[in-house]
Amino acid sequence: MVAGQMVVVYGAYGHTGRFMVAELRERGFVPVLSGRDADKLKELAVSVNESEVRPASVDDPAALDRALAGAAAVINCAGPFATTAAPLVEAALRAGIPYLDVAGEVEATLDTFAHFTDRARTAGAVVVPAMAFYGGLGDLLVTAALGDWEKADEAHIAYALDSWHPTPGTRAAGAVSRARRGGRRVRFANGGMEYRDDSAPTVDWVFPDPVGTRTVVGEFLTADVATAPTHLPVAEFSTYMTVDAVKDVLAPDSPAPTAVDERGRSAQTFLVDVVVRSGGRERRVVARGQDIYAVSAPLAVEAVHRILTGRTRTLGVASAGALFDAADFLRALAPHISVELSE
Ligand SMILES: NC(=O)c1ccc[n+]([C@@H]2O[C@H](COP(=O)([O-])OP(=O)(O)OC[C@H]3O[C@@H](n4cnc5c(N)ncnc54)[C@H](OP(=O)(O)O)[C@@H]3O)[C@@H](O)[C@H]2O)c1
Q1: Which residues line ligand 1 (CB under 6 A)?
Q2: In 3D, which of 258, 238, 66, 28 has the Cα closest to residue 154?
Q3: Does the structure show a pLDDT above 90 at 2?
Q4: From the CA of 257, how far away is ligand 1's center (Å)?
Q5: Global model pTM greater than 0.90
């Protein structure tokens, strides 16, 4: 039974945190609103009619312990995760509860694996970084596409976003990653990160209808390269993003997402086209939906539900594809995300 269990949302008053709070309520959990700003938390509590407000800053372990007390799990929605992930994972390990985050930062996600894999496994804890649109969905799609294959030569994840209006959190995370890369770009090659001074290539990608052929930025780094390669025997991973979406997210004057429906979702649509190849065979999985921020909530809350009901395959730091039955998880995401698989 998960009904009535408390789940802490850290960064609850952020754009993604608000979707998370609403999704937890819809699924029968009791959201506990946490984050660093007590006034913003109180304001949110009034607007969503929740009573559990627990302010805590990431540099105050005692406050984080009070925030997590009695909870069944914590979902960290406060980015940049380069700053927030480690203190929240530490607090979750002290509390003995699962930790999930929605990090889109490649380096911060790699850090979570690097710093906590041994400790989380020894503690019998579950730590799931990047349990969101980037990092979580792509990993589940590639895992489901591989299915019964023991290995693959290539996995390609191509994103077609009709627009990408970034939140302040996305801009801040991008700035942290750019600073960390010292102005260079990074591509994922030969199983690791490779820093380069040249420009990313552009190619044409034929998406399924109705998107069709679009120019995409190749080697566009998403958190999927920090999650899927941790558990999938695929020789080469490639990620792509439609050029227009890259321009949108980088433009200083792009607006923030605007709500167009009663759930607070923006009009943004996405199509994720995953192709895997092995010895001349090819499989394709396509996922479609609306609003990459909003959809991260059903992804993370479905993950919490599965962890708390014991539907997991491993312990320690694990990505979505390693932790869950990917095909079954993807089916459970309807109607938020529709998925088609073809051989
Ligand atoms: N992987 C994915 O697909 C995916 C999906 C959605 C979101 N994300 C990531 O999630 C993060 C949040 O996104 P968002 O859209 O919700 O952005 P947002 O609306 O700007 O919210 C950011 C939240 O993070 C909090 N925060 C920032 N720095 C903090 C710190 N040092 N300590 C405590 N709280 C801090 C902010 O609190 P204050 O207002 O007090 O600063 C705010 O609550 C971003 O990094 C974004 O890239 C990733």
Answers
A1: 11, 13-17, 35-37, 58, 77-80, 83-84, 102-104, 130, 132-135, 167-170, 173, 223, 292-293, 296
A2: 238
A3: no
A4: 14
A5: yes
